[in-house]
Design brief:
mainly alpha, two-stranded antiparallel sheet, 20 helices, globular, two-stranded antiparallel ribbon
Length: 504
């Protein structure tokens, strides 16, 4: 059988090697090679989508062979309904981001090489079914991200890159400890995620730490959860995110919000849920509370921002809270809503970051209100109508307007959570987040686009063809999935049903 997942994962790595071999004095050639290389996984992603069997919950397109045999480490790749939406999001956003990065002038070769390396790491995380392999890809992803922020970022790029690196590394250390522990406590010793998820392997086992006897499954759950929560990011592990977003180049912000944050929630659903179901139920209320805090805290922080990019960054913290709430509900509607929200947030927030990048390229600032209290923009809808229209679609999708993608996923999340009597109070409190979301997004829209035109910006140029081209596929997805979400919901239905049987 054709190893389609491996090809999708390693073609970008091959592209990186080709780009590093190209002459430095021809940046356009580098750009076109990067576009060509990222188009291959995108085309294969379309094939995956069309040939994916939606009726089964088992792994598909599986590739499996022994890798490091003495330790039972396998090269094991495969996708199910949980991973395919994330794989499709990854290949689409990477392709669009390569085109959106056309304006990068310094170190073009290094930039695109790192970007392709990042795609290999992201693809691997979503396809790996062996914990050791998963961990390798998780770490691979960290390095290019560090360089992309630290070399091509803004004024405070070094601080932002180091903060991102240290936070994520702390999570990785915990994950490494859990991985070693799971291998040691599993019988027979294995890193295979599907074998680890069979038969409640760690229930009732204990370990003595610092003179106390502790249950292994709960320790593993906490270690994994913190490792993944840093990526989501769940409050209070979120402080790296606004810095990383504000300092990162536009395309890197898009990947960060669109794909990297989803790895945290994906990891929880792929590992904590099936491998440690009892511990997950034990922590359900804790997850729900953190989700509600994320929704409200992110929204209040977004309301206080004067920088467009920081506002969108904090809105991501808020929106990932909905994913946590849906996951903690343990209902079909809630978990489906959570995974759909992961996908929908990836498209709408990618649009917002791309749009902030467009205005920054022209005005060289992102202030809604300048630090001295004067107007940042104002009334620019009159001079950039196309830009304003696309921004309106992205904003309304983000705040959950019916008819656009954000509404369906948030509605399913609340529907699922409310149907669990334990969580009804939390849902009522969390629904405030929708009001706050509308408040900060509409406030921003009014300040920037409506009202009398700020004369400073009367010569602003509207979007060019390349910029419109990068936004059109996302715009189409936001509208289509808002009206008819089944193309994504169909993919994951069987897998989520099977996952939830562990908790019934």
């Amino acid at each position: 059988m054709f190893p389609i997942l491996s090809v999708m994962t390693y073609i970008p790595l091959l592209g990186m090697i080709i780009i590093l071999a190209l002459p430095r004095n021809n940046p356009n050639l580098v750009r076109w090679v990067a576009v060509g290389v990222t188009a291959i996984p995108l085309a294969l992603g379309v094939y995956l989508y069309l040939s994916f069997d939606r009726s089964t919950a088992s792994m598909q397109f599986v590739e499996q062979f022994d890798w490091i045999k003495p330790f039972n480490i396998q090269y094991y790749m495969g996708i199910d309904g949980l991973s395919i939406p994330m794989v499709l999001l990854t290949v689409l956003l990477t392709f669009l981001c390569v085109i959106a990065s056309w304006g990068i002038e310094t170190g073009v070769k290094g930039y695109y090489a790192m970007f392709l390396f990042l795609e290999t790491g992201m693809m691997g995380v979503f396809c790996a079914l062996d914990f050791f392999l998963f961990f390798v890809f998780w770490e691979i992803m960290l390095l290019p991200m560090y360089f992309l922020i630290g070399i091509w970022g803004g004024k405070e790029k070094v601080y932002a890159a180091i903060k991102f690196f240290l936070y994520t590394l702390f999570g990785s250390v915990l994950m490494l400890l859990v991985m070693v522990g799971m291998y040691y406590y599993s019988e027979p010793h294995t890193f295979n995620l599907l074998q680890l998820a069979q038969g409640h392997m760690f229930l009732g086992k204990t370990v003595v730490l610092f003179g106390h006897q502790l249950p292994v499954d709960k320790l593993f759950w906490i270690g994994l959860f913190i490792g993944f929560a840093i990526k989501v990011p769940v409050w209070p592990f979120h402080t790296w995110l606004p810095w990383a977003h504000v300092e990162a180049p536009t395309a890197v912000s898009v990947i960060l919000a669109g794909v990297l944050l989803k790895m945290g929630t994906y990891g929880i659903l792929r590992m904590n849920y099936p491998i440690l179901p009892e511990a997950t139920l034990w922590a359900a209320e804790f997850m729900m509370v953190l989700g509600i805090i994320n929704i409200l805290y992110g929204a209040f922080c977004a309301m206080a921002q004067k920088d467009l990019k920081k506002l969108v960054a904090y809105s991501s913290v808020s929106h990932m809270g909905y994913v946590m709430v849906g996951m903690a509900s343990f209902t079909t509607a809630g978990v489906n809503g959570a995974v759909l929200q992961m996908f929908n947030h990836g498209t709408s927030t990618a649009m917002l970051f791309l749009l902030v990048g467009v205005i920054y390229d022209r005005a060289h600032h992102r202030w809604i209100v300048k630090p001295d209290g004067s107007k940042g923009f104002g009334g620019i809808a009159a001079v950039v109508p196309v830009y304003t229209g696309i921004m309106a679609i992205a904003l309304f999708a983000s705040l959950g307007l019916p008819g656009l993608s954000g509404f369906i996923s948030e509605a399913l999340v609340f529907l699922g959570a409310f149907s669990n009597p334990r969580f009804q109070t939390y849902v009522v409190i969390g629904s405030l987040g929708i009001l706050l979301g509308a408040a900060y997004l509409l406030w921003m829209f009014m300040r920037v686009f409506l009202g009398p035109l700020n004369e400073e910006y009367k010569d602003l140029k509207d979007m060019n063809f390349r910029e419109v081209f990068t936004l059109m596929p996302l715009c189409a997805l936001v509208i289509i999935l808002g009206v008819y979400p089944m193309p994504v919901l169909n993919l994951m239905g069987s897998t989520i049903e099977k996952l939830l049987t562990l908790f019934s």
